């Protein structure tokens, strides 16, 4: 057994059984090890951002890390944006980055770089393996670090000689820890704040699981408090039978309005909310001045248990779930964002995983889908666009028995459209609903907010996606995914229904 085989065997023994890879020369021993060691599924991405985004989606749905296998510093750098999103989502991910043989580094070959400096900003744990014997134990520690509550990105740098040299065997299995139990004083303080009336509970992290949503609903039923989700939840369970919970709005003025008048803001797995960007005359923190912040549970604690403890302390009744929606008839006429959202909400099946990177085109879907069949939503946690398509690939590999819907904006979709090829190669049940407004519409909104409602030719050229227009049907077919274009609401509804009824990947370009 060599170091590469030890790394793969140790990973499989620890329950890590998927590797999203874009390897190069320095990873060839690991590629050979994937052939020799059973139990690890290898998935090729044509771009490293597909690998890292897919690992994010996989980890969000399973709670276990996948491996990414990346080529030196430049290859890793191609995947950093989606690792930023994974870090913000607190997703367990283990990166394995091949490097030159240790004795070759001083030669300063063309692909030599400071990999540690690239890895640290997006990793909670980084280690360069010093030897072949260390490689297996290093990946075991990386898996342990990635799964340490609340989850995170861990990175192992594997010199090529550490991969090919012989070792005695795989490393011992990592040790896993459970989230910390609720703090009794925090539970008592939260119960007191809710009894006083006027409090807002902000949910995040583990509080977005089904049990957490139900416990939060009990707090509403027992005290009349308001509950809000983080603006971009990493994963939240929704739909008929579950309490309906609104999201904290994106724009700071609306978010501040949503929190205005709160007697206290209770943080249940969420962080004290801040504006996405700073604006002239604006402020960073969104909690009203003088409003007390009550920390019920941090993301690394047992958020669900804390919420349930507060509900029990208040003797709160069971929550009333959202009624199953009954959308009568389908939208008609020319297609727009509202009609597209209605068509999706009326068609999405039980158990769907909706990866939402639709940006401005998807704003109406959240309210319309409150009473849709039970579903899971994964959203863009870190703001680095290009997350949606690869995240959908990872979610589909994690949950092959569930339909995955990538509700996708065209501008962000173009960042990682190579994901379509992986979806085709793996024959994943991913339906891409591509919102084609042929613009970075959010930037056009921001231009108007900045005082330029009628931007000039330079601003128009930097925020528009026409001249030429992207032909998403041709792009999808080129990557092996069947596609169709729809321009009116009935055609969109029919296309969504057809795609969801057939196995394998599909793309629907909805022209808005």
Question: Helix count, per DSSP?
Answer: 21
CATH class of the largest domain: Alpha Beta
DSSP strand content: 15-25%
Q: Whole-number average pLDDT?
A: 96
Instruction: Give the number of domains.
Output: 3
Number of strands: 18
Q: And the CATH topology of the largest domain? A: Rossmann fold
Provide the fold topology.
Blueprint: H1 3-13, E1 18-22, H2 28-36, E2 41-44, H3 48-62, E3 66-71, H4 72-78, H5 80-89, E4 93-99, H6 115-119, E5 125-128, H7 132-147, E6 153-159, H8 160-164, H9 184-196, E7 199-203, H10 210-223, E8 226-229, E9 236-238, E10 246-247, H11 252-259, E11 264-268, E12 293-297, H12 303-313, H13 337-347, E13 352-357, H14 365-368, E14 375-379, H15 388-398, E15 404-409, H16 410-413, H17 419-425, E16 430-436, H18 441-449, H19 457-463, H20 472-478, E17 483-486, H21 489-501, E18 506-511
Parallel strand pairs: 1-2, 1-3, 3-4, 4-6, 5-6, 7-8, 7-11, 8-10, 11-12, 13-14, 13-15, 15-16, 16-18, 17-18
Antiparallel strand pairs: 9-14
Helix pairs in contact: 1-2, 1-7, 3-5, 3-15, 9-12, 10-12, 13-21
How is this structure best described in words?
This protein is α/β, with parallel strands linked by helices. The protein has 3 domains: 3-164, Rossmann fold (3-Layer(aba) Sandwich), CATH 3.40.50; 184-313, TPP-binding domain (Rossmann fold); 337-511, Rossmann fold. The chain has 21 helices and 18 strands. The strands form 3 sheets. The chain has a 7-stranded mixed β-sheet, sandwiched between helices. Strands 2-1-3-4-6-5 form a 6-stranded parallel β-sheet, sandwiched between helices. The chain has a 5-stranded parallel β-sheet with strand order 10-8-7-11-12. Helix 1 (3-13) packs parallel to helix 7 and helix 10 (210-223) packs parallel to helix 12. The longest helix is centred in the first third of the chain and has 16 residues, at 132-147. The model has no long low-confidence stretch (mean pLDDT 96).
